[in-house]
Amino acid sequence: MMTIDEEQQALLKRAAEERELIFNRYSLGLDPSNQVDPWENPTYEIYHITDKYGFMHDSRLPDIRDAHEVQKTKIELERDKKWVKMIDKWNPHHEKLRKRVFKGIPDRMRWPAWKKLLNVEETMSANTGVYAKMLELSRKYSTEVRQIDSDVNRQFRDNLAFRERYSVKQVSLFNVLNAYSIYNPELGYCQGMACVAGVLLLYMQEEEAFWALNALIVNEKYAMHGLFIEGFPKLTRFLEHHDRIMLKIMPKLHKHFMKHNVDAILYSIKWFFVVFVERIPFSLSLRVWDIFLLEGDRVITAMAITILYLHKNELLRLKDMDSILEYLQVKLHKNFGYNDDFAIEALERVMKKLKEHKLDVPPPAKVTEFPTKPLGQFVEADIEKKIGRRHSEYTDTEKQVINDVILRQEQNAMEVQSTVSYETSECATVTLTVPEDNHSIRSSLAGTSMASHGSSETFSLEDNNIHLKTANALQNTPQREILMGT
What is the pLDDT of residue 93? Predict the structure, then answer.
């Protein structure tokens, strides 16, 4: 019979062998000798079914581009030239930069523009050799290999760059995530990081994406460390702020959500964790990313409100939690209902309005949202983590997260119940109009005006009329699985 020490040594050996096996597969990449299960490489047709970003679609794309699309391409080529000049004479504080970012960075210019916005080249120059060292250490000591391997194989499987098992981009994603788990051992790895790094790798090389990811995680402007660290302190803070805005700006929708037990945590996880990727069309999420990289995390709360505001009439028609969540999590990704320009214009107005009412920035972050230990200093994991043994009980941090959610819901309910019933409030006109040439309006909204139909929602994107109305609150406690994953 094995002693406890012998058993631990056997488990450590098995974990090391598994880690080496996984790394070897990524080292082989697309080499024919690499073993790939048939299900990992689904067959697909390339011809006519991929968009400009490499994403595949169920239906064929048009054989011929219409005149509008041709004209749009010409305009984008002209914008490319302007961006080349602007990047050559980079001034991050110039008002012209902000205007052009809100117009959308031309796709061909996102590589240099994003690197400038995240200060990637300067960071790489100041940290020569660090990424290679972290990657080397991860091959020997990473405790996150199994989970990262699993997530890499799930990330962007409908995109040509990531679809083939052990493709160049899959290998890069695997390397970046493992190296970062060593570089920032306090954080390690959280599933949402795979999507963020995946987006960066669509526009950057491997080491560039590593330092860009680090900027998003540790820079106070983005501070995603607080989203991914155990306990998700930034998520809790942003959810509270989101509830506060909803209560003040869209009380009728807020009541509707509470009536059907739709807590913000149920629909906003991917909004906050990965900046709307896979929840709205990819082209629109890139536009939001452009602004996010320029303006910082206040864009996330503003875009969340913009989505709900633009679709509030449809959401109010849905009468149960499942249909509301399906609409926000699935349907809007397939068909947002508005073209990208219109959505971004609405976002800009919402950002301005929130700022006027001092709602654009959440309460200050706590120290727990930022790294408290030096980055890049190797810290060997304890034996439990090396073995990969999972705790069966809630950790103290997990218990605190659940308690925080319950407390937020109770406080939210008390605030709602303390105000005047929204049904007795006077109606106000919402002055958000839909342009006549907006061909992307959802067919289910055809013939529906975007003016308020007897609604008490009074958040106008054109004037200062914001009234407080209300709702009664009854919300369920989110399950642990909702809190612990994306």
Answer: 86
